Amino acid sequence: MAAKTDTKNTTGKPSKHGGKESKKLIIAKTPAEEQRLKLERLMRNPDKPAPIPERPRDWNPRAPPEFVRDVMGSSAGAGSGEFHVYRHLRRREYQRQDFLDKMSDKVKQDIDYLDKVEENKKAADDRTAKRRKKRDKLKMKKMSAKKAKEDSTKEGDEKSSSSSSDDDDDDKEAEDDAEAPSFVMGRK
Length: 188
Description:
Distance between the termini: 83 Å
Number of strands: 0
Mean pLDDT: 79
Number of helices: 3
Strand content: under 5%
Radius of gyration: 43 Å
Structural class: mainly alpha
Largest sheet: none
Shape: elongated
Low-confidence stretches: none
């Protein structure tokens, strides 16, 4: 594809700007406009990867010096500039101590959270085991009742090989009664 030419340029050669259109500078007046402009710029070329900034590192205080060369004394006659140095050192030390306190609190909260998650998981497992035991117990009860019913029907069949159709209807009604719901629908 040939480079785009200016309409004023009559020589047929690309303009000074390398063939790109001159874009009007748009200044965003609100944060929403700024975000819209950034999105439009990103969407002009969707194949180009979007820049994702790295997460900023947490602030770490400077470690205290291993060897202090100019130790402050409490003698009289210290210069007026020494106070500012002392104040700066004191502020930095307080910042370091506050940081260490916050870090220990954060570690404690993380440990408490993990303990609570473990406790909740154990409680959920206990509830699940209890319910599973109850389901298994109910299942065994149903199976034993079904087995007892089958045994009784086999014995009944053996005793009276010629049963009438009335007995079969009674058995079906008994089964229907066993499966009947505890509530009645449609009654007025």
